[in-house]
Design a protein that fits this description.
By secondary structure, this protein is mostly beta strands. The chain is built from 1 helix and 10 strands, in the order αββββββββββ. InterPro entries: DUF5004.
Length: about 150
């Protein structure tokens, strides 16, 4: 009986160490809010799977997102929207959708987007069909002067 207590007393600290070693010590860092405020330009445009970046002058197109959730467009092209207005993200930390509310139009337009870093620069990738479902555009936008 005494020998069995000795073994239990000896095994208890080992068991506690083993259980504690299984828990990972993680420091949780809060996810930053995704900031799309700024001026953006199109650096790549694909229509129906064909790269059209060099076929059209995309250099003059600009979209500006402000911190007060407004946007303005310069030199419109086929895009999700054609008028200035306001925007909203579905989630400020993990956004997957953006909604545009054009001034004077009651129905907002929504689309999915991604927000990757490419070659050290933040990009936004939009996929959309402006009116005609037969045409799908994939635009890659890059922020100017971040």
């Amino acid at each position: 009986m005494m020998k069995s207590r000795f073994h239990i007393c000896l095994l208890m600290p080992i068991l506690v160490l083993f259980i504690n070693s299984c828990h990972r010590n993680e420091i949780l860092v809060p996810e930053p809010v995704k900031d799309i405020a700024g001026e953006w330009r199109i650096v790549k445009a694909v229509r129906n799977g064909v790269d059209i970046t060099t076929l059209t002058d995309f250099t003059k197109f600009r979209i500006r997102f402000t911190t007060d959730l407004q946007y303005t467009i310069e030199n419109p092209l086929p895009f999700i929207v054609s008028k200035n207005g306001s925007y909203a993200l579905d989630d400020p930390k993990y956004p997957f959708r953006i909604s545009f509310s054009q001034t004077g139009i009651s129905n907002p337009v929504s689309t999915t987007f991604t927000y990757p870093v490419v070659n050290g620069k933040r990009n936004i990738n939009f996929t959309f069909s402006p009116g005609c479902a037969a045409n799908t555009y994939d635009y890659t936008l890059e922020r100017l002067n971040p």
